[in-house]
Amino acid sequence: MHNSAFEHEKITTTSSRPGQVWLVGAGPGDPDLITVKALNVLRAADVVIYDRLIAGDLLNYCPPQSIKLYVGKQRSRHSVPQSQINQLLVEYAQSGKKVVRLKGGDPFIFGRGGEEMMALRAHGVQVDIVPGITAASGCAAATGIPLTHRDHAGAVSLMTAHRCDGATDCDWASLTADRQRTLVFYMGLAQAQHISTELILHGLPGNTPAALISKGSTTQQKAVSCTVETLAKAATQEGLTSPCLIMVGSVVQLADPARITPASLTHLEQATAVCPE
Question: Catalytic site residues?
Answer without folding.
Answer: 51, 73
